[in-house]
C-alpha cells in the first residue's frame, strides 16, 4: 500500500473503526503491575488467576483502576493440595500494596477524558495544527488541518454522551456496591442469629441431659430403697414363721405330757392359749403383707 493510500485510510479512520475499549470506560490510568508480578494477580476460589494489563482493555474493556476494596473481598478456605501454593498466595496478597499505574504511554488508550480515538479530533483539540501520535507501536504521523464546525459539534455531543454513560455506569456500580454491602450485612446478621440459636439449643440439650441424669439417680435410689424394705419385710415374716413354729413345737410337747392335776379346765387351757397365739401370729403376718 502506497503512502497516499495509507494517508487516506488513516484520514478516514474514526472512533468506530477500532474499539479497543468501550467509549464510556476511558480512564486516566490503570493498574499494569503489582509488586514483582508482570500481570495483575487475582486470587479466587478456583486458584490464582491474573490478567495482562495490555490485553485486558482490548479484549474485555474493563481495565483495573483501583485495588479491590475491603467490602469486595471475601474469605475462603484452601483445602487439600492448595496449601502447597501458600507462599505464592501470600506474595499475591502483598503485591497489592505496591501498585504501579500508567496513563498516556499505553498507546491507543486515551489519557484525557475529552480526547477521542479520532486523530483529527484529538489534533485540533490539542494544538489546532500539529502532529498526532497513534500509539507507541506505530510511528505514523499525520499533518492535520483545523477541524470543521460540524465535527466540533459532533465531538461535543460525543463527549456529553460519554459523560452521561460514565455517570450512569458509576451510578450502577455504586448501586451494586451498596447491594453487595447490604447482602453482606444480612449474611452477617443471619450468621449471628444462627450461632445464637445453636448456643441456645446446646444449652437446652445440656439441661435436658442433666435432668435425665438426676431422674436416673433418683430412680436408682428409690429402687434400692424398695428392695431394702422388701428384704426387711420378708426377713420379718420368716422370723415370725420360725417363732410360730417353735411355739407350736413347744405346745405339741406339752400336749403329749400327762396332766399334772385333775380338773375340767386342765386340758383345755393349753389348747385355748395355743389358738390365741396362732391367731396373733396370723395377724402379724397379714400386717407385714
UniProtKB/TrEMBL annotation:
Keyword Cell membrane in annotation: no
Coiled coil location: 177-234
Region (Disordered): 261-289
Ranges of biased composition (kind: Basic and acidic residues): 279-289
Keywords: Coiled coil
Domain of life (superkingdom): Eukaryota
Domain DUF7745 span(s) in chain numbering: 3-106
Protein's name according to its UniProt entry: DUF7745 domain-containing protein
Organism: Mucuna pruriens
Record lineage: Eukaryota, Viridiplantae, Streptophyta, Embryophyta, Tracheophyta
